[in-house]
Design a protein that fits this description.
about 550 residues, alpha/beta, Rossmann fold, Cobalamin-dependent Methionine Synthase, domain 1, about 45% helix
Length: about 550
């Protein structure tokens, strides 16, 4: 009783903004350790009193094909602090298992999480199955790739029960408490949520009618100008693959971008300014000290192993938006073909409509250009430590280690890109940048990742895997939805042109999707499925898409 009173008090302080997430998770660690000692007595008490009351039972899962769970785990801990019973099914959980567990356990709510865009389709599938199987259980949607708009437009129409978007842990408690309260307050909340969905769908429809403002042909005519007559592409110092078996974590620490680490704990701002922030500075500084202590252990006790592979290849752009990758300098045998997408939205005069292929010399130019690829991880060895923390009821250390592994993987990608620029490709041998400049990308060249705004199609990772074989060379595999495992992994392409820049493809038209499907030799339906977040039209209702 006193333990739950204490945790409810912690939950109330968190909800009121008077306590921050690291404190909540640390408090939960104390509670769980205490409960573990008291379980025999608690079970006796339950048997004598006919059970104990919680605020509700919630099934949580990262959907099939997705391996990311830091955010989900944080939400689970916060809900447990507020007297909800959480059954966490883990990652890559099939729809059938989620719904079977919900039925068997008599769940009051089902929470779905996902980080990569293909997970959005899997969430739609779960909603459809819940409707088909006659569920009326509230469905909670969360994760980095989700949004209020997607929840309203794509998920809610397929399920008559409540579908609620949960932005983060701080919102989760209030939402779940309203859904767990019987009677009029709950009904009013559900009605308001459904009404909000309808409004967002109308707004979305209004945006759709505007659509892309240029045809694909017009966008291609306004491409980035690489000045290929005057520009001589730099020649890499080696061609082919280079494998890194056990990269020094010590070397990577100075490349860590700490702000995403604090974002994972729901702190905003800029590093290092956030350490002295008058409101959150004390808590952020304490969290940072804990992170540095664990990072020291990770390095000195060898908790994690960093492995990676890079490749540098002869390449030329072809057919406007594709890039051919060649086996050698004879350029007679094509190893792979990279497929990219082009911006179609209207832009002010003087701004180009970019595709990544624009940054590689066209074959017709006669220039011999090159492209690079990479896949790295800092997640090998993490599972045994996560299991150790689980046995010790230590969510705080578990979340901390996952967040640090993610930062080390990103630092590894940053470090190798620096070495590519200075050594391996060697087009910037004199570059000497501080970490702040690296974080701001104040250097020549880019390393865009499949699934991110400049190349949003996750399926292009299949080509990257074909070129690098990261499973054999770095121990990194991809799931059916093209999530990478170990989770602390980064992959992408290297472009060296001084004009290369990051951009968002944004919404694209049916003409480009049809062209893309033809170039990739896949059906229009499959292309639309993988590019769903980028479609500037509705494939279900647009007559032209039939």
């Amino acid at each position: 009783g006193l333990l739950m009173y204490g945790m409810n008090f912690v939950g109330d302080l968190f909800g009121a903004g008077k306590m921050f997430l690291p404190q909540v998770v640390k408090s939960a660690r104390v509670m769980k350790k205490a409960v573990a000692h008291l379980i025999p007595f608690i079970e006796q008490q339950k048997a004598a009193s006919g059970g104990s009351r919680s605020n509700g039972k919630i099934i949580m899962a990262t959907v099939k094909g997705d391996v990311h769970d830091i955010g989900k785990n944080i939400v689970g801990v916060v809900l447990q602090c507020n007297n909800f019973e959480v059954i966490d099914l883990g990652v890559m959980v099939p729809c059938e298992r989620i719904l079977e567990t919900a039925r068997r356990e008599g769940a009051d709510m089902i929470g779905l999480s996902g980080l990569i865009t293909p997970s959005l389709d899997e969430m739609v599938h779960v909603a459809r199955e819940m409707q088909r199987q006659g569920f009326d259980t509230p469905l909670l949607i969360g994760g980095a790739t989700t949004s209020p708009a997607h929840t309203s437009v794509k998920i809610d129409p397929h399920y008559k029960g409540p579908v609620v978007y949960v932005k983060d842990a701080s919102r989760s408690v209030g939402i779940c408490q309203q859904l767990a309260t019987a009677g009029r307050p709950r009904d009013e909340f559900v009605t308001r949520v459904k009404s909000d969905h309808a409004v967002r769908r109308e707004q979305h429809q209004g945006k759709k009618t505007k659509g892309p403002q240029l045809t694909l042909a017009q966008a291609r005519a306004n491409r980035f100008n690489g000045d290929w007559e005057a520009y001589a592409p730099p020649v890499p110092r080696f061609l082919g693959l280079r494998v890194f078996e056990d990269y020094s974590l010590e070397d990577l620490t100075r490349y860590i971008d700490w702000m995403p680490f604090f974002n994972a704990w729901e702190f905003g701002g800029k590093f290092p300014d956030i350490l002295t922030d008058p409101v959150v500075g004390e808590q952020v500084s304490s969290l940072y000290a804990d992170a540095r202590r664990m990072l020291k252990q990770v390095i000195h006790e060898g908790w994690l192993t960093a492995r990676g592979v890079i490749g540098l290849f002869p390449a030329n752009s072809v057919d406007d938006d594709d890039v051919e990758v060649y086996a050698d300098e004879s350029r007679s045998r094509v190893l792979a073909r990279l497929h990219f997408l082009r911006q179609q939205k209207g832009k002010p005069d003087g701004q180009s409509h970019d595709a990544l292929a624009d940054f590689i010399a066209p074959r017709s130019s006669g220039r011999r250009d090159y492209v690079g690829a990479f896949a790295v991880t800092a997640g090998h060895g993490i599972e045994s430590h996560l299991e150790r923390f689980k046995r010790a009821h230590d969510d705080y250390s578990s979340i901390m280690l996952k967040a640090l592994a993610d930062r080390l993987a990103e630092a590894f990608a940053e470090r190798l890109h620096e070495r590519v620029r200075r050594e391996f490709w060697g087009y910037a041998p004199e570059e000497r940048l501080a970490n702040e400049q690296l974080i701001k990308e104040n250097y020549r060249g880019i390393r865009p990742a499949p699934g991110y705004p400049a190349c949003p199609d996750h399926t292009e990772k299949a080509t990257l895997w074909k070129l690098l074989d990261p499973e054999a060379n770095a121990g990194v595999r991809i799931t059916e939805s093209f999530a990478m495992y170990p989770t602390a992994a980064v992959s992408g392409w290297y472009f060296s042109h001084p004009g290369a820049r990051y951009f968002a493809v944004g919404k694209i038209g049916l003409d480009q999707v049809q062209n893309y499907a033809a170039r990739k030799k896949i059906s229009l339906e499959e292309a639309q499925r993988w590019l769903s977040p980028n479609l500037g039209y509705d494939p279900d209702s647009d007559a032209d898409a039939a």
